[in-house]
Amino acid sequence: MRTETENMVTTKQVMRRRLFSYVGWGSFAAFWLGSTLATLRFLFPRVLYEPSLRFDAGKPEDYQVGEVSTRLKKEQRVWMIRNADGMYALIAVCTHLGCTPIWWPMEHRFKCPCHGSNFLIDGQNVAGPAPVPLYRAAIELDLAGHIIVDKGRQNDKPGPRDQKPFFLPLPRA
Fold first, then answer.
1. Taking the complete model, does pTM exceed 0.70, yes or no?
2. Chain-wide mean pLDDT for the chain?
3. Cα separations (Å) of 87 from 3, 74, 154?
């Protein structure tokens, strides 16, 4: 016969085995549940919806000759510039570290407030640490006479940036 102490030891061993069994099966279930949830999450990828790089900038008549339009700077980070020969769109991103320069009409310059880069009205860098000129976006007229700007196509090289598609020739106003 078993004594009372032996019965307590046996009961403790059974309780201990049951605890280890629960912990083991719980860990097993948690592993498979986590694996299943991760697999299901993989089937629905995260997508970043960004606005189109092409946008309508209005009609050429909306822009004055010799002025820099800043109305698209906030939404699209683009300045529209019309001169006597045509129009172009400058990307409002400093080529040094990506800050947004400010147009100073009294000085006829774009100045970066962060590190002091200076750019002429055509985007050419003249002072500061910016290594290259501001980029120009491709620009064209659609059939309705609206200006379409494509920020997906950019150029900063003098010469090619002064021709189509980075410069839109217009009849003199």
1. no
2. 86
3. 102, 19, 15
